[in-house]
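Notes, p. 3: input format for complexes.
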Amino acid sequence: MSRKPLIVGNWKMNGSFAKNTNLLASLSSVPNVNMVVAPPAVYLASVSAQLMNTSIVLAAQNVAAEGQQGAYTGEVSAVMLAELGARYAIVGHSERRQYYGETDTVVAKKCLRLQEAGLRPIICVGETLAEREAGQVETVVSRQLKAIIDNCGIDLLAQAVVAYEPVWAIGTGKTATPADAQAVHGFLRQLVTIYDKNIADNLSILYGGSVKADNAASLFAMPDIDGALVGGASLVANEFLAICHAANASFIG
Ligand code: PGA
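Output follows (253 residues plus 2-phosphoglycolic acid):
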């Protein structure tokens, strides 16, 4: 890995005050690795307090698409997340696209709200199994990423992170082979290069989908895989740390 590794733990709808405290107490910084955790919204404040004086950074799993204040029942705005100490927010996760109707347009709006608040979006893209089998991987991921570039401008990607997460690999124990993942990561970086080579060269493109301690190193050996978005394994301190250590081992500065 030539870009500084970024490892993001997406806790999804898991945790409790007690579990979070234990998990965080078992994490420690790993050289050359930017470590990020994304707890559920209700725990952001307490996790933020616990991360103070550590190098672990806070992320949100979601953000309101409309407005920063106002009549949007149930929503949490980017400005509010910034006030809590979050520096990133995940957008366009396949679970949100699948269960909550998050379209490319909504994802782009969320990116704009994050940009207003100075937060960095972690933009998830990825194909379903049916789309892969139909040979549509590049069509799908380029549609998803271009929707962001068209609506927010290429400069957004100077502040953003892209996560390639094949939907069929999330939480299933199936991982894309390192070569298959690299092919898509390389394609995404090439797509961004068409707009701006410097932004493309510096862009962190994470892989997500059943990343574990025992498959992380082979993924991180790929030239365009700059880290991981980790679900299940991020809830187990030793697994998450082992993934971070694998990232450090593959970093060639
Ligand atoms: P998983 O989830 O590691 O449990 O597959 C990854 C994700 O959804 O971000």
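The chain is about 45% helix and 15% strand.
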